[in-house]
Design a protein that fits this description.
Layout: H1 2-18, H2 22-59, H3 62-77, H4 83-97, H5 101-118, H6 127-137, H7 145-153, H8 163-193
Helix pairs in contact: 2-7, 3-4, 4-5, 5-6, 6-8
Length: 194
């Protein structure tokens, strides 16, 4: 990846210099830095605001209530019988559902570490590890705060109009990925028994 980035950087600089526009490089860099800095600050404050609102919901017990609701479904999907691992998985998925990315990351790492220990630190991931990665990659967000924030900063008159489409698309992608994962795991198990 470093080679690719270096190639694009050097070829871009070479292109500017070949056209005799060396002075414009500094102008482009300073303008891009200023606009990027302003954008990052806006996004930072917006993320902090939504994280605070969602943290209030988490403190009120919304995540724990949601994880209790999800527990029976997750027991059917995941093979683990360890209640500690199941609890960590349900807390992570519940945090992702609520759009609490900051809380979902530590709980996801904790759940994956527990799954890795249950897998005896094997180089090949377990079925539950594969499924858990899918849940984090294709997670459903009931409140897509980042997208709403970006739309608001871009001047959208109704930044929340994407909530329903985001929920539907993420649900479909999660359903397809779980179905495909379960099918591939079933095929692998069937092939190993032959």
């Amino acid at each position: 990846m470093n080679y690719i980035f270096s190639f694009f950087l050097l070829s871009g600089l070479g292109f500017f210099l070949a056209q005799g526009k060396g002075e414009e490089i500094i102008t482009v860099i300073t303008d891009a830095t200023a606009s990027c800095g302003g954008f990052v600050l806006k996004l930072l404050f917006l993320t902090a605001f939504f994280s605070g609102i969602i943290q209030i919901g988490e403190d009120a017990g919304m995540v724990s209530a949601l994880s209790k609701i999800l527990a029976p479904l997750l027991k059917r999907l995941f093979k683990t019988k360890n209640p500690d691992i199941s609890g960590k998985i349900s807390v992570n998925i519940s945090a992702n559902l609520m759009g609490i990315g900051n809380a979902a990351t530590p709980s996801g790492l904790s759940a994956m570490k527990a799954l890795d220990e249950a897998n005896n630190h094997n180089e090949t991931p377990s079925d539950d590890m594969c499924l858990f990665i899918l849940f984090n990659t294709c997670s459903i967000q009931l409140i897509p705060t980042t997208i709403m924030g970006l739309r608001a900063m871009a001047g959208s008159t109704n930044p929340a109009s994407v909530v329903l489409p985001v929920i539907l698309v993420s649900f479909c992608s999660l359903l397809c990925s779980i179905t495909l994962c379960k099918l591939l795991l079933w095929l692998r198990a069937k092939r190993s028994t032959l």
